[in-house]
Amino acid sequence: MPIINVDCWEGFNAEQKEQWIKELTNATVNLFNIPPDKVLVILRETRLANWGQAGVVASDPDFLAKSRLTE
């Protein structure tokens, strides 16, 4: 049984999550020729204040600019 874990940030609405789970399930069913009831999808949402990139917390209003540091 495939278990698909998706780590994502919070902010997706219920309809988006429902569609995401449906599409991941369909792709897995079609690729591996298995029944849908054998596919488990888990969405794990993380608050923006709980992750960061390049030393910048994602809830920072200037996150996109500040997190593009290459040096």
UniProtKB/TrEMBL annotation:
InterPro entries registered for this protein in UniProt: 4-OT-like_dom (IPR004370), Tautomerase/MIF_sf (IPR014347)
UniProt keywords, alphabetically: Isomerase
Keyword 4Fe-4S: no
Domain spans labelled 4-oxalocrotonate tautomerase-like: 2-59
Claim: Isomerase is one of the keywords in the record: yes
GO molecular function terms listed in the Swiss-Prot or TrEMBL record: isomerase activity
Similarity-based family: Belongs to the 4-oxalocrotonate tautomerase family.
Record's protein name: 4-oxalocrotonate tautomerase-like domain-containing protein
